[in-house]
Design goal:
This protein is of the alpha/beta class and 295 residues long. It has helices at residues 2-29, 35-40, 43-52, 57-74, 81-84, 119-135, 161-174, 191-198, 204-209, 218-225, 247-265; strands at residues 93-99, 105-109, 144-149, 179-185, 210-213. The protein is globular and about 50 Å long. The model is unreliable at 271-295 (pLDDT under 50).
């Protein structure tokens, strides 16, 4: 027995050493980096890209370089709450005030509370909150969990298939291994038609992380509860907590987080909280990164 344990432990150490060697190989394969790109590419970041591409250095390099290009154009770290606050007025997507059992940040999505028509701004709002969820990850934790409540969802409130595909592609390609699990709670039967199309846009790893939960299906409920303390889980998801989204209070949190993000990325950002977070200062288009951001 002790021999088997020793061999297993030895194998794990070898795998870990090999992985670290491959991470170094990926870093060595990259062109010289500076500014935000350099600070984005922490070892933890490189490990996530390697994991997403099954530890293939060439494929990981291509994926990472495409992300760096996307980030240089889209600039997700520059989005500020006042730019997307209108999207959050109904609480259709927001960061929960609790973590899962593994300390992961939790995003709550309620697509039935859609309140706007601009697909571009809806996506910008989602990207802002993903960046915010990453900003609020505890040390040593790289992933987040999603809870999706389908109350009030209809085909008329769903996004077009093309937009769903484009969104999924960005999340998979530019936020690899950020999603640990996504629970879709009690989706209506009509959602099945939408899902039958959308699921083909998911890669195999992401597909395995999407779990359907039905209140009358004991196994699915138990799986979800294995990730969350019941006293933290909102009643809308079968838990004991009362879910109350207060847009004004959430805006105050986001404005404070914008300051934290600006400091993290080295922006000279003189952010001022204004009322409910619908307005604020301009963000400098370029800045020197003085502190390493979360990867």
């Amino acid at each position: 027995m002790f021999s088997r344990w020793s061999n297993s432990n030895h194998d794990q150490e070898n795998d870990s050493l090999q992985n670290e060697s491959q991470v170094k190989g990926l870093r060595a394969s990259l062109p010289p980096l500076s500014g935000r790109s350099l600070n984005y590419c922490t070892d933890a970041c490189l490990r996530r890209y390697m994991e997403a591409r099954n530890w293939n250095v060439d494929k990981s390099k291509k994926m990472l370089e495409e992300t760096l290009k996307w980030r240089s154009i889209y600039k997700p770290e520059e989005i500020r709450w006042h730019e997307v606050a209108v999207e959050g007025e109904t609480g259709k997507v927001y960061r929960a005030n609790f973590h899962d059992r593994h300390g992961r940040t939790v995003l709550i999505l309620r697509p039935g509370k859609q309140n706007t028509t601009s697909l571009d701004n809806q996506f910008r709002h989602l990207v802002y909150l993903i960046e915010n969820a990453i900003l609020n990850l505890p040390e040593g934790q790289e992933q987040m969990a999603w809870l999706i409540d389908f109350t009030g969802w209809t085909l008329s409130t769903s996004v077009p298939i093309k937009s769903a595909r484009d969104t999924i592609n960005v999340l998979q390609d530019h936020y690899p291994e950020r999603l640990a699990i996504a629970f879709l709670y009690s989706p209506p039967r009509i959602f099945e038609a939408f899902w039958k199309i959308v699921k083909y846009f998911l890669d195999a790893k992401t597909f395995q992380k999407v779990k359907f939960v039905y209140p009358k299906n004991k196994d699915s409920v138990e799986l979800m509860r294995s990730y969350f303390d019941e006293e933290n889980l909102p009643s809308e998801f079968g838990g004991q907590a009362v879910l109350q989204y207060n847009h004004e209070e959430f805006s105050k949190q986001m404005i404070q987080d914008d300051i934290k993000s600006a400091n993290l990325w080295g922006f000279d950002d003189k952010l001022q909280s204004v009322g409910n977070g619908h307005s604020g200062p301009e963000v400098a288009s370029e800045a020197v990164c003085l502190a390493p951001p979360v990867s």
